[in-house]
Amino acid sequence: MFGKVLILIALGVVAAVLIAGIAVMAIGGKAGAKWSNILMRYRILAQAAALAIILAVLYFAGR
């Protein structure tokens, strides 16, 4: 149960960063270009963390 909650939180963080990045890109301008790049980097980090959490939950669920 705890693993499912961790996975949902991780996926929620990825979705939130993705939506924020898309919203900033839609605004445009110099600030939009700067922040969209930063947010997309955070999205990559969040995706890596989410993948690590999913793999850890699957590993420990199989034991």
What does this structure look like?
- The structure is a single chain.
- The protein is 94% helix and 0% strand.
- With 63 residues, it is an all-alpha fold.
- It has one domain (2-61).
- Helix 1 packs antiparallel against helix 2 (29-61).
- The longest helix is centred in the last third of the chain and has 33 residues, at 29-61.
- The model has no long low-confidence stretch (mean pLDDT 92).
Beta strand count: 0
Low-pLDDT stretches are none
Total number of helices: 2
Structural class of the helix and strand makeup? mainly alpha
Distance between the termini: 15 Å
- Our count of domains comes out at 1
Beta strand %: under 5%
Shape: elongated
The amount of helix comes to over 70%
SSE pattern, N- to C-terminal: HH
Average pLDDT rating: 92
Over all CA atoms, what is the radius of gyration?
A: 15 Å
Q: How does the major sheet shape up?
A: none
What is the gist of this entry?
This protein has about 60 residues and is mainly α.
Keywords:
single chain; 63 residues; mainly alpha; 94% helix
Write the layout of secondary structure elements.
Layout (H helix, E strand, L loop, with lengths): L1 H26 L1 H33 L2
Helix pairs in contact: 1-2
